[in-house]
Amino acid sequence: QVQLVESGGGLVQAGGSLRLSCAASGRTVSSMVMGWYRQAPGKDREFVATITWSGGTTYYADSVKGRFTISRDNAKNTVYLQMNTLKPDDTAIYYCNAVAGGHYWGQGTQVTVSS
User: CA 20 to 30 Å from 77, out of 29, 53, 85, 105?
Assistant: First the structure.
């Protein structure tokens, strides 16, 4: 069983930055494909970014490409999402995801970007 705990969300002004963390337990992040998704009010959950188990390949949604960076620290069993140049449209609950024989989700962390 994999447990994921997100942290780092908060309120920030447009143009600001936040770094989200996802601490995993129950399995090492190096053995899983890890990702971030988000869900804005009234909208479906959408893909944000993913990183392969080796950490060598990353993928991003077009809406965040060039502004967000996903990374992993295998020693800390943690995945990060560095978010720069934030926009009000980035306001959402951000969820950490792990793929390891099934999909696992964290409880989410709220990110609010004010204009």
Answer: 85
Euclidean distance between CA atoms 29 and 7, whole angstroms: 16
Q: What is the pLDDT of residue 74?
A: 87
The C-alpha angle 115, 109, 102, rounded to 5 degrees, equals 135
> Tens of pLDDT along 30-42?
788 999 999 999 9
DSSP state of 16: -
DSSP H or E segment with residue 43: none
